[in-house]
Amino acid sequence: MARKDILEVVKTALDSPKRNFTEGVDLAINLQNVDMSKPQNRIDEDVILPSGFGKPVKIAIFASGELAVKAKNAGADLILSPDQIEKLGKNKPGAKSIVNEYDFFLADASLMPAIGKNLGPVLGPPGKMPRPITSTVNIATIIEKLRKTVRIRSKDKTTFHVAVGCKTMSPEEIAANVEVIIKQLESKLEKGTNNIHSIYVKTTMGSATRVI
After folding, report:
1. Which of 22, 31, 91, 190 is surrounded by the most beta carbons within 10 Å?
2. CA-to-CA distance for 143 and 93, rounded, in angstroms?
3. 25 in helix, strand or coil?
4. Which domains does the chain carry?
5. Which residues, at least 6 apart from 205, have a Cβ–Cβ distance to it below 8 Å?
C-alpha cells in the first residue's frame, strides 16, 4: 500500500472528537490462512518505529554496580537491585504492578537465571522477560532504541493489536510507523500480504478505519 494511501487512512482515523485524555493509536491486525497452533507461525517481532510513540516508554533494569550506574546515567526509569528479585517473586501483586507499569525490562545477564526462577511466571506471559546485557554494551543506545520499539505479538490468535503512536502525533508520523509495521509483518508471513485478511487503524475511542 502506498504511503499516501496510508496517510489518508490515518487522517480519517484521527478525525474523531477530542477527549479529555490523550488517545493512543493502534492497528488491529487480522490474519488468514495461518495455522496459529504452530509456534513457528506466530508473530513475535520487535519493530523500531521511525516516529516513536509520541509519549514516554518506561524502561526498568535489573542490575547493580557499574551496570546500574550506567543505566541510571542513560536514563533508565527504574533500577532493580539483585536482592529485589526474590522479594518481588514472593510479592506477586507488587511484581505485577511493576510489569504493568514498565514497557521493557533489561537485566545483567548473570541475573537471568534468578529472574526466570522468581519472576518468569509474571514477566513471561505478557512478553516482558528482560533482555540480557553486560556492562560492556552501550546501554544508552539500547535504551534509546527501546523508547521507539514496539513488539508485534500475535500469541496463538489470528487477531491482535499493536500500538503505533498517540493522537498528539501528526498523521505523517503515524503513517510512517504504520508503514514500517506492515512491511515487517509481510516479511514474516509465509505468503506475505495474502496472509493478511485486514488491518484497521483506530484511536482509543474512535472508529476503526481500514488500511488493508
Report:
1. 31
2. 26
3. strand
4. 3-54+148-210 (3.30.190.20), 59-146 (3.40.50.790)
5. 16, 17, 19, 23
